[in-house]
Amino acid sequence: MRCTIFFSKSVLVLILFVFGIGLGKTNAQNGPQMTFDSTHHHFGVIKEGKKAIHKYKFENTGNRDLKIEEVKTTCGCTVADYPKEAIPPGGRGKIIVSFDTKHKDGPYVKGVNVHHNGGISNLIVFITVKGEKSKIPEMEIPFEDN
């Protein structure tokens, strides 16, 4: 009897596990799905005053059209341009992110939130800006006594 109960529970757990995986695959394939080649980019060190631009490439791996509804950046120095038309299943697109380094100095991490009809995707930008603290170096002028 004890063996039968153990066997029955094991079979039940196995059936539920397999059934759950099947449901997971079905739900994941329904609707649009935005899959990026990479969700982060590190520009490295860039001289102050330059614009840092990167293209985040993605594919709609879902089974319905993907429509980007809104793209929000974490500050005004970061701007994103994105496709306004729907991306069909299997179609590809890109989001162009630009970071303005004017009057910046030091390391920065910026986020881009992509709101679409399949959910929200997050992109990360890493950059270190080499700013110029002062254009004129400080000098010591010797005092001359006449």
Keywords for this structure?
Immunoglobulin-like; disordered C terminus; four-stranded antiparallel beta sheet; 19% helix; disordered N terminus; alpha+beta; 43% strand; 146 residues; single chain
Characterize this entry briefly.
With 146 residues, this protein is α+β, with helices and mostly antiparallel strands. 19% of the residues lie in helices and 43% in strands. The chain folds into two domains: 1-30; 32-130, Immunoglobulin-like (Sandwich), CATH 2.60.40.
CATH superfamily of the largest domain: Immunoglobulins
Number of helices in the DSSP assignment: 1
Q: For the largest beta sheet, what order do the strands appear in spatially?
A: 1-3-6-5
Strand content: 35-45%
Pairing-aware structural class of the strands and helices? alpha+beta
Looking at the overall shape, the CATH architecture of the largest domain is: Sandwich
Query: Which fold name corresponds to the CATH topology of the largest domain?
Result: Immunoglobulin-like
What is the share of helical residues? 10-25%
Task: Based on Cα principal axes, name the global outline.
Answer: elongated
How much is the radius of gyration in Å?
26 Å
Please summarize the sheet with the most strands.
4 strands, antiparallel
Total beta strands? 8
- Overall domain count: 2
Low-confidence stretches: 2-7, 11-28, 134-146
Give the CATH class of the largest domain: Mainly Beta
Series of secondary-structure elements, N-terminal to C-terminal: HEEEEEEEE
Distance between the termini: 114 Å
Mean pLDDT: 79
